[in-house]
Design brief:
The complex is a heterotetramer, with two copies of chain A (445 residues) and two copies of chain B (452 residues).
Chain A lengths: L2 H13 L21 H8 L1 H4 L3 H5 L4 H18 L3 E3 L5 H18 L7 E5 L5 H8 L3 E5 L9 H7 L4 E6 L12 H10 L3 E5 L12 H4 L3 E5 L16 E5 L10 E5 L5 E5 L14 H14 L4 H17 L20 E4 L1 H7 L3 H10 L6 E2 L8 E4 L7 H20 L1 H6 L11 H5 L14
Parallel strand pairs in A: 2-3, 2-4, 4-5, 5-6
Antiparallel strand pairs in A: 1-7, 6-7, 8-9, 10-12, 11-12
Chain B lengths: L11 H11 L31 H13 L22 H7 L2 H4 L11 H18 L3 E2 L6 H16 L3 E5 L4 H13 L3 E5 L10 H10 L3 E5 L11 H10 L3 E5 L18 E5 L15 E5 L3 H5 L6 E5 L5 E5 L6 H4 L12 H39 L14 E5 L3 H12 L5 E2 L3 E5 L6 H15 L2
Parallel strand pairs in B: 2-3, 2-4, 4-5, 5-6
Antiparallel strand pairs in B: 1-7, 6-7, 8-9, 10-12, 11-12
Helix pairs in contact in B: 3-12, 5-12, 6-7, 12-14, 13-14
The chains are: A alpha/beta (445), B alpha/beta (452).
């Protein structure tokens, strides 16, 4: 194709797409915030684009190594940990990294019977999936009536087969695990390891640190909390930070500084190996680096305003028919919240999916729905610090309007969306073996 | 800086309105659920401590990036998982349009048709290139894609053994090993004829004896040779009940019999060679595809986009077979992968369309031709390529005593990056960005420092 | 406003705009072609963005001066002229430059009674406007029955009061003035000067040169023929090239090369002065420079395919009811053409404007309408070399569809557009003194 | 390169189909109306003669641009019509989105509402900044805007004389002179007190005697001084029946009484100071506005966007009062201007929104503060600013014997660009991009070469 044809083809595609640059993308636990263009510009500059990874290996690209070193240092300070690797190319890769560190740690100790990973029922699906990839059995820990880890159940589950616990805090309900020091103590008393899922760090960054709560491993998503773009599903960028006693297990190369101020790459002695072919996603690191510089110690503002925004939204929907806020209504949610549309579904037949599609019709991206699994007709929403007052107010109004329609003319919502480039798609046809079509080539052989 | 430019509500007036609506007096009250003893009591020592404004950020970043002299693409000859390839500016522009760059994974299909179509086209273009029916929407990189292909094989064939070609990049071996460690699975290496790079009786013997779940075949070899015996190898692999996992650099395929046609069950590749920037090694693009087989499909990791129709019968696209994935299937998922590399997949599809069929072929021929010249340049300086009798594509590996020291000397003296250093060998590559003069310079630099 | 709010505001604005990146913009005489992104990238790079004009004045920015010098040389070769200035910031500025050169030339010769500028009736409006700005009276030269300059009328108009003739060739009808050497001879015999309006150079570039036709002055639009973007109405970039005897009159600074290969800026001895505060629009020059490098001597392909595309379009509409091709039907049009929808208007009441609005409804930008003035219900269309076969076919189909509707249900077309973000706008209200509103501040004082 | 990537139909197959539809056999037949004797018989010697492909183009361009070492923005102190100002990357991104970049002048309003709204906002923001009711959608630059303002005055007041401040940039004087030459009009300069930069009795006398159609007043002066007597001058101008044309650097306005409030009939400015790149001096943005007066409005050059309603009564925007313009009014048009500087107008509006009211004020204060430091740096080195007793904003002019030679020496030795050189004087400027250290460096450089 000629250049102009390609440009038009993809320009049209972008016009049928929707990102943070178009409006709120308030997906819970996904932390879709503004991706600063100043960073985009450096990422795309030839200064960075033309750096072959061997320049890092030769250690001639001292400036890049220094940038990575600084970032490691800052992430340590933010998380309260002692060492970091920047190799994981995404959050889930960071989870796997944590899981394998746990595995190797116990193997090195000869503690080989520890094959269970404890995971709360409100956890992201990637936690049990990562646990499985590390060869662990996932043991589900139920939530208590406050939506928090059930301490009794936790105590009952912990044994000498327990390798670790994977936890996000604030949890996916937006609730802070206030007994967190007790939780980590229970694990530590049993010599098990606690892994922090960084998906929700945005709600507490600069306010509290996983390291201070007793976590041993922390994985971060540079493309969530630290403003790297999500790119419609990647590339992301991860980081894993650990307490001193796990430092030697980190994968990849750690950037270190010698006595002459020269930066060099260090392979750790008990390293789990590599989780990526190179040193990590440098573009994501650049975003994180610029993001941190832009805030400095004011970084608490990120948690402050993301939490403010989400609680403001909750207040706007307080008392609206058909919606409930499961678990302690009075407790502020940290940066995200889960509402239940169960009553609405029961009373009108309109599901939370119908509401989501109606939001699309009004030019807004929908929140995460049907997750976490412990809430029926879950509507999991997170407004980051980069969302505006006006949009949050409008968003709440559209939700209220949807509910009004649900109670007056429910079939209208079943039709949604009508303003998008296609209407509701046939998932059965898409997934059925007889009609499946994952490429133009499929079925032609 | 009192108000932060990236926080729209960062002003007293709005803050107070919002706090009032919430029904609290002070923003600290939002965080009362955090026990006092674990709240941060100090200011974090990060960044420049005080916030930097945009002008200061630009100044700082310029200092940081300028510390590194620019190396022109054509002065880079380093091989390995990443190599110098040409990135069209028009592609950079298109993937950086905000609607793509700042989008989430397209869960809400109706408002994300453009992104979904772009990914569907990527899947289709790769399927054509590899001659295979199903290619997913992208993995992190070639290494993790190989690792996931290995796990996929094990899920199907159950034997916790994977055989790999000895000429795989070390970086890939390391990643596969890490993933296999999680499954307590083992890695077996098989070898080739030292001169020709072709398979030998021993190669077959090893596979026959070990019966690995999957056999990873590099075609062309990561060390360069285009093995004529690849088809034969795949047939042997099938004979002993293993799955054939073929890793192919997609830039080579327009002039080779594609791995699908050779009978591969699973295909893997690294998309960087189709024109992604090197960016210090990230981000990359893992290509992963399978032949049309129910078992393989049910066990495929990663996102998959499919065609369907909407409520009006109009054609549309959505993510399919999500029941394989972590957010639905949790501990039984085919992988934990969530955020992959959508944007890079789209970039690669754009490049493929820009080149077109003929353009891609010309490009592959140019790489082949340049590799030949590169090999001659090495030979001229008394350096012998491993598998010297083979026809090399893009990469060439060769022994050097101290590649780190010698490489640094070349960089210093000649301002070219001659190879990627490994313990006692090096890998150089020639691509479409090089021309005769560039390779002459390479020859001069190699001769000046390494001549034997 | 916060950055994300600004980004969203303008992202939305772009989505309500339409450029070549979205589809054909076949405005006659406007030459809206693909603007290569490779050039955009250099224009935006800090290499160029941070160059203060004083670096050119100090002559330290030798690379930029060299680029400008090369461009001058290439434009001379393309136009068949002897010297060029790159100072004019747009096409109309180039016209004014030509007009003032003519004025000063005669003034220097003491030939001060020459106060008439001859301009064909098919000319762009900017020609007479520029002529007036130079203090000349515009004398209209009628077209003959072939749509070309009426030689008799021309001869009758030329006198010792004639300063010059402004002409575009091919003319705005897309017809080549085949008597051009006769035309320039008539002027030259009368010691007058002939100015070439470069708006239509795209139709003959690499095939024929204004210099070889006898033109004395040529103005070029780098943002038309040479692929610099139009930017929704600028910045453009112009250039003016002249024959040797007018070189000394050029405005601005001419980049010259000394014996040591060093580039320097030269002010011409009889210069009309400056038509811009600096040395011209460097970004536009970069586009032109890259454009010429990309083609080299293959640049004739630009004329070949733009002309092919437009004649192909004419063929697709041949014999369609309501449309005529005024003037010699059999003569191929060079890169643009003017169709008349007069019959359609008479027979159905549907105007060419209605058809234009219907084109918008179908996702296409409309051609120039109601120009040139010598054709009733003019539909002036130009497909450049960067337009695709498929789009030209589709465009013709939409026009045919519009005509079909005009003859069956004309009122439907009067409603168009209905798919755009606003419907047909009220021009009376917009322009009426009592309702005029050119700013939010207007009427508030 | 057989097929050119920018020509979609450049292939034999399509060419033949299209020729057949047209009814000719060969593409040469398209050009039969061109007489044989003026057809080109040779290949043009342009570019590299043969076409360059994208990779070659990139290589070439890198060589061309790299020949110039990058000068950081903050190392530039040159004043004049263009000065170093900060350009936010986000603005560059937005104006380079294809829908804006590749659009035509919005004749078809219904499909161009975004562009029209962006321009309307520009007009409105500038109207607020200058405190005047009407600002057009942009002129080429400050110089041509001044020239057009002069012609506008002459159209109204009929006397072919324009008076200008002696402290206008030479570049502007030259452009005005060129435009006035077309109208056989004359230029008169008026002067100020040498120490204070304020008007004197002579200034008034000149205007009184000459009765020019328009008087161009620079406020702040192009040479820096913020004249306190500007209001008085405007009153005097009106007293003698002339129009007051006030040229103001928009970056100064947030801390000054705006020219509209001072009674200006016409306001002019150069938009580059609101954050456009310098780019060697192009492209720029001429700001041109008028008070709400029928005569002025009827004679206003350039595009104007206005608000209206559509067929459904919905608010919309379109170009208005086009009867003033060349494509309608031809020889009686108010100007020949066609393509102006839309994209730059939008960029400036974006920057203004990014800064906000407070941000713009802070920025202006910083420029004032930096200018003060710059003046001190000059004084420290024994160099006296012209109008030394005045308060300077941004620009400072001073005498130097041989500014070209001395400037080149400073550039060479100190890697800063200290000023814009004129015949026997120089203009330096300080802006928001500079900080204390930058100005210290300036001082050092000036001291090293120019100290008196």
């Amino acid at each position: 194709m000629s250049e102009i044809e390609v440009v038009r083809h993809y320009t049209r595609f972008t016009e049928e797409s929707y990102g943070v640059d178009n409006g709120p993308v308030p997906l819970g636990s996904c932390t879709m915030k503004y991706n600063p263009r100043i960073a985009t510009n450096y990422v795309n500059s030839e200064y960075l684009a033309n750096i072959h990874p061997s320049l890092l290996k030769f250690e001639t690209a001292q400036n890049i190594l220094k940038l990575m070193y600084q970032l490691q240092e800052w992430l340590k300070e933010i998380t309260g940990m002692d060492a970091c690797t920047l190799q994981p190319p995404a959050g889930a890769s960071g989870e796997l990294t944590g899981v394998l560190i746990i595995k190797k740690y116990f193997q090195e100790r000869g503690d080989t019977q520890r094959d269970e990973m404890l995971i709360p029922d409100s956890a992201h699906g990637s936690n049990p999936a990562s646990s499985s990839m590390g060869g662990f059995k996932s043991v589900r820990i139920p939530s208590d009536e406050h939506g928090l880890v059930n301490l009794e159940a936790l105590r009952a589950s912990v044994s000498n087969k327990t390798a670790g616990l994977m936890l996000t805090n604030p949890n996916t309900l937006g609730l802070f695990e206030k007994n967190i020091t007790e939780v980590t103590k229970i694990l530590h008393e049993n010599e098990a390891i606690v892994h922090y899922d960084g998906a929700n760090l945005n709600g507490i960054i600069g306010i509290a640190r996983p390291g201070d709560m007793g976590f041993d491993i922390v994985h971060l998503n540079l493309h969530k909390t630290f403003s790297a773009p999500h790119g419609g599903g990647g590339p992301g960028a991860g980081a894993v930070c650990v307490k001193k006693y796990l430092e030697d297990y980190l994968p990849g190369y750690i950037v270190s500084k010698d006595d002459n101020g020269r930066y060099f790459l260090k392979k750790m002695s008990k390293s789990i190996g590599d989780v990526y072919s190179t040193y990590g996603n440098l573009p994501g690191m650049i975003y994180a680096y610029i993001f941190i510089l832009s805030y400095g110690s004011d970084i608490y503002k990120v948690a402050k305003y993301s939490t403010l925004n989400t609680n403001f939204f909750i207040s706007l929907l307080k008392g609206v028919k058909g919606i409930t806020l499961p678990y302690d209504e009075k407790t502020p949610r940290l940066h995200e919240t889960v509402l239940s549309f169960k009553k609405l579904a029961e009373e009108t037949g309109v599901t939370v999916e119908d509401v989501a599609k109606y939001l699309l019709d009004n030019g807004f991206y929908a929140p995460t729905i049907y997750f976490p699994l412990i809430v029926d007709e879950a509507f999991m929403i997170e407004f980051t610090e980069t969302e505006s007052y006006e949009n949050i107010v409008k968003y709440a109004e559209v939700v209220k309007k949807a509910i009004e329609i649900a109670y007056t003319n429910p079939s209208e919502l079943k039709q949604a969306p009508i303003n998008t480039s296609v209407r509701r798609l046939d998932a059965v046809k898409a997934n059925h073996p007889s009609t499946l079509k994952p490429s133009v080539k499929f079925g032609r052989k | 800086m009192k108000y932060h430019p990236w926080i729209p509500n960062d002003n007293e007036e709005l803050l107070n309105i919002m706090l009032k609506t919430i029904g609290i007096n002070n923003w600290d009250e939002l965080f009362t659920s955090i026990p006092e003893e674990i709240k941060l009591k100090k200011k974090l020592k990060i960044g420049a401590e005080r916030p930097l404004n945009t002008i200061e950020l630009e100044k700082h970043m310029k200092e940081v990036v300028r510390a590194q002299n620019i190396v022109d693409l054509e002065r880079v000859f380093s091989g390995g998982p990443v190599a110098p390839h040409f990135v069209p500016q028009v592609t950079t522009y298109l993937i950086n349009r905000g609607e793509f760059l700042t989008a989430y994974t397209p869960y809400q299909a109706e408002i994300s048709q453009g992104l979904l179509k772009a990914l569907y086209e990527y899947q289709s273009l790769m399927a054509i290139l590899y001659d295979i029916e199903i290619v997913n929407a992208g993995m992190y990189d070639g290494g993790t894609a190989l690792a996931e292909a290995s796990l996929l094989s094990i899920r199907i064939k159950k034997n916790k053994k994977i055989a790999i070609s000895s000429t795989l990049f070390e970086e890939y071996k390391s990643v596969i090993k890490t993933y296999l460690y999680g499954q307590n699975a083992t890695l077996i290496e098989y070898d080739f004829d030292k001169d020709t790079g072709e398979i030998t009786g021993e190669t077959i013997e090893k596979i026959k004896n070990e019966k690995p779940s999957g056999v990873i075949i590099d075609y062309p070899s990561n060390f360069g040779p285009i093995r004529k015996s690849t088809k034969e190898l795949i047939e042997e692999v099938h004979k002993y009940g293993s799955l054939a996992i073929t890793f192919s650099d997609p830039s080579s395929l327009p002039i080779l019999t594609p791995p699908g046609e050779l009978g591969s069950d699973i295909i893997v590749g690294e998309g960087q060679s189709l024109g992604l920037p090197m960016s210090g090694g990230g981000s990359l693009l893992g290509i992963l595809g399978i032949k049309n087989d129910k078992e393989l499909l049910r066990n495929l990791p990663g996102r998959l986009i499919g065609e369907t129709v909407d409520a009006d019968g109009k054609k549309g696209y959505m993510m399919i077979l999500q029941t394989r994935e972590q957010h639905i299937r949790r501990e039984k998922a085919t992988s934990n992968i969530t955020t992959a590399t959508t944007l890079n997949a789209i970039a690669v599809a754009i490049n493929v369309l820009l080149y077109g069929e003929k353009g891609l072929k010309t490009r592959a021929e140019k790489i082949l031709e340049n590799t030949k010249m590169l090999k001659q340049a090495l030979e001229k300086n008394g350096i012998e390529a491993s598998y010297k009798k083979a026809l090399h594509f893009k990469n060439i590996s060769y022994k050097i005593d101290d590649p780190f020291t010698e490489g640094r000397e070349i960089i210093e003296k000649y301002k070219i990056i001659p190879f990627t250093p490994y313990q006692n060998y090096a890998i150089s590559s020639a691509t479409e960005v090089h021309n005769n003069e560039d390779i002459s310079l390479f020859s001069e630099a190699i001769g000046g420092v390494l001549r034997k």
